[in-house]
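2 proteins. here.
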Amino acid sequence: MTVSLKDVAERAGVSIKTVSNVVNNYRHVTPAMRTRVQQAIDELGYRPNLTARHLRKGRTGIIALAVPELGNPYFAELAGAVIDVAAEHEYTVLLDHTGGRREREILVSQGFRARVIDGLILSPIELETEDLRGRDHDAPLVLLGEREYDLPYDHIAIDNVAAARAAVRHLLDLGRSRIAFLGARTDRVNEPSHLRLRGWRAELTAAGLAAPDSLVAPTGGWDHADGAAAMSRLLDSGAAPDAVFAYNDLIAIGAMRVLSERGLRVPEDVAVVGFDDITEGRYGSVTLTTISPDKQTIARLAVQSVVERLLGTAETAGTGGARELRADFRLVERESTIGRC
């Protein structure tokens, strides 16, 4: 049996408006009245009709999250965090997979689901500034990642350069000096791999060490196989690194597999640091040292940004309408650099 506001009002002996005020968490309701209504709600098992509530406001109650790869553990974990935060705001999340393809990112950003969603959280790879400049869909758009578009859309990221420098500094402090970078992209100049490469180079330079191209191994993708192939090419070239900083954990794990096959010990012969702190890195035969972005904060900032834009409460004074929001990161030390304790 469906329980209505009227049923709750009759049980509590109050008006329907009072019940509505409690359900919507209006602050002017007295504590005693709130307790009285909440008791009736609990006794009857009332659940608000969120769909109807959103429709009364001219909304659908749905936020879309579009990421390059749903199969990538980092994006899967981020999606889970976004779903949890959205639920706190009584929103449902629609997941979309762009494959990191520009045409798909353009389609998503231009609002092809305009009648379905209230806002969009997008993590682009190939999208260009001009692709967004003519956007005519008024649903709030929030961008994730390091690419900067100089457009009036909120942007949430960690400092990839600083994070990369922290990873390299950790390896330097362990006495490593020939630190390779796996996962460079030569076709993009403003995406996270380029920024992490910049941080790798900056920290080595600051330590008075060379940062030769011979220690940079590009990859065509971001999976285990890409890391394994890059590590094989690097070893075959005779570069002989004593440490590896990988673009992400999947590349790092693939690299560690090749090192083991070649008879090289991790971390004794080659220390390895990844990026993303995915669950898989915590349970291998050698656990992975990694940069851990604060995924919970990224998710919370992204959802709050959409909600604030919908409510018109976003603080944008002096920003040209856009906000740069930063999430933190930390270095998690594990066996791939410090060995087993």
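next one coming up
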Amino acid sequence: MTTAFDPIDLSGTPLANRIVMAPMTRSRAGDGGTATELTAAYYAQRASAGLVITEGVQPSAVGQGYPSTPGLHSPEQVASWRKVTDAVHAEGGRIFAQIMHAGRIGHPVLLPDGLVPVGPSPVKAAGQVYTAEGPKEFVEPHELTDAEIRQTVADFVSASRNAIEAGFDGVELHGANGYLIHQFLAPNTNLRTDEWGGSETGRIRFAVEVVTAVAAEIGAARTGLRISPGNPYNDIDEPAPDAVYTALVQEIEPLGLAYLHILEQVPIRELTLQLRKTFTGAVLINVHSEGPTGPEHHTVIDDGIADLISYGVLFLANPDLPARLKAGGPFNAPDPSTFFGGDARGYTDYPALDAV
């Protein structure tokens, strides 16, 4: 029986185990959206994961959705990430960059002068985003033109190429959680009637073109996709996600991607199993649970439901999580109050297993 602690070959990238550090926004980037020494220490501490997936990294200036998030679209940003990948590799780890365009989620005060958030349609999201000036209501996004959509695809490609230059083992394209790729997939955020919307074929087109273009640039074996069918986060409404996600996976299946990362919702396990049948590559699951994914959930590997499992909050409090899972604990308790503050706790200050 295969377990979460067994190695796996991820399309040519050997992983020591099947436990993945999930991507998590940290809002601690340095000047100009650069990675810092603290970023390198944070990811290197967690290099015992089979695979580390970074926080969302914007592919362009307009792709930024939150304060102090990093990018991969300037020479300075690329150089800063090299320190991170070197640190992870020195610890024997593997690391993918998550490329995330926030789309309509964000605010003009977070962007360079003259830029506004963009989306497939001019549909304002309900809610607020935190900024240096305090909480701000989301704004109506600029509807991307056909030419701007094609430029956005090119931005994903450029950022992915920059990721490889920075030493990453691959990239994960963020098609989940209500950000730009997800906004094209969802019927309440994509009201277009042209080739980029309307039918299921139209709504999946942007995702397919981004994935195809990135895979052609850096290699499908170094490209993953994250999806979250039915996830209402960031004011998304997908009442019947099965058809569009089945169509999406059918389209990308022939590419031979490194993996498909599914962030599960309720009652989505049936769809997860269907997508697993459709996608012949590695399937990575972030398991739905009442709270954060817990130590009991890695049995999805034993049961053959997935090939890998990703952990988020538990990895913040337990940098050496694979060892703790294998030992059955003990586990440091996550402290959400430290996750986004100015201090480093939640990054580097939790005690290691051999210290407890």
